[in-house]
Design a protein that fits this description.
- With 123 residues, this protein is α+β, with helices and mostly antiparallel strands.
- Among the domains are: 39 residues, no CATH class; 38 residues, no CATH class.
- The longest helix has 16 residues.
- The model has no long low-confidence stretch (mean pLDDT 80).
């Protein structure tokens, strides 16, 4: 696991440390001051440790773990079902044998789950 830090917090810490140099220990230390500035600039120029997530990188990752293949298979496989007729007050409806939702049984496909409905014998 990588150890991410806040870039600005690191630069602020370097600048704070530079401000607290004891003048009697480091009198007018131009080299030390320049070193702090160089460190702050160096941190500023570092690339981000947080990778930019793009659509392509997300898709590549999903392929690498096998999720995409399974998802594609589920999306492309057409389920098959039958309408189980039930009588309502005004007309005959059907219950989908795949998702068990009620709909008009005149549809070729279930409007809820997309299953292709088989024609019952005698119809």
């Amino acid at each position: 696991m990588s150890d991410l830090i806040d870039r600005q917090a690191a630069i602020d810490r370097i600048n704070k440390q530079r401000e607290h140099l004891e003048p009697d220990v480091y009198p007018q230390d131009k080299i030390g001051d320049a070193a702090y500035k160089i460190c702050a600039e160096f941190i500023e120029r570092l690339p981000s440790a947080q990778p930019e997530i793009t659509l392509e990188s997300a898709i590549d990752y999903l392929h690498s773990i096998g999720w995409m293949q399974e998802h594609d298979r589920v999306l492309t496989e057409r389920k098959t079902g039958r309408w189980t007729p039930i009588q309502s007050l005004f007309r005959t409806l059907g219950i989908c044998s795949v998702c068990h939702n009620v709909s008009g049984n005149e549809y070729e496909y279930c409007p809820w789950c997309g299953a292709k409905m088989e024609v019952a014998d005698g119809e």
